[in-house]
Design a protein that fits this description.
Elements (H helix, E strand, L loop, with lengths): L6 H19 L5 H27 L5 H23 L5 H21 L5 H23 L2 H31 L7
């Protein structure tokens, strides 16, 4: 019995929510009007899709996929709940939260060194984005926040490419899009 590959679902959930939040972080849209929709999307697609993808990686024996997707699914759940509960909480807390996720992402990024280049770049750029965003809150530097938003958009595009390539390559039974 062949199981479907759950990674594209998780990657698309990640890419979509990361792209939307990164546009807000880069200042493309007003935060107050956009944040409720962003947090609903983060909870519904970012959290749920990634967590389900992670659970589906377990029976496939993919420890990395299980840990990564479940972890980032929980990130989106936690982030959405934090923003909804404390929309104007101290920036230092949010900064510490993001720096902790930068460290976790760097640790998981080590596992990608045995995987493909696209995933390596996803984890590298995500680590940088988390670090820039976290430091922007801790140091109260808007320029780092904007830069972190743009790095996040690069991360989202890489994740979307990885997801697309996995689906297209499987449908075609050959490498059409290299990863």
């Amino acid at each position: 019995m062949k199981f479907a590959n759950p990674a594209p679902l998780g990657l698309f959930g990640f890419a979509t929510c990361t792209w939307l939040l990164s546009m807000l972080n880069a200042g493309w849209f007003p935060l107050v009007q956009s944040l409720p929709l962003m947090m609903a999307m983060a909870f519904a697609f970012g959290g749920v899709a990634q967590f389900i993808a992670g659970l589906l990686e377990y029976p496939r024996g993919n420890t990395f996929g299980f840990v990564a997707f479940c972890s980032y699914g929980c990130f989106w759940f936690g982030f959405a709940l934090y923003i909804e509960a404390l929309p104007h909480g101290p920036l230092e807390y949010q900064g510490a939260f993001l720096v902790v996720w930068a460290v976790l992402t760097a640790c998981l990024g080590l596992a990608t060194l045995k995987l493909n280049l696209c995933l390596q770049l996803v984890f590298l750029t995500l680590t940088v984005a988390f670090l820039l965003l976290g430091l922007s809150h801790l140091l109260h530097m808007d320029s780092l926040h904007t830069l972190g938003g743009y790095v996040g958009m690069v991360t989202a595009l890489l994740a979307a490419y990885q997801a697309t390539a996995e689906v297209v390559n499987e449908v075609n039974d050959k490498i059409v899009m290299p990863i």
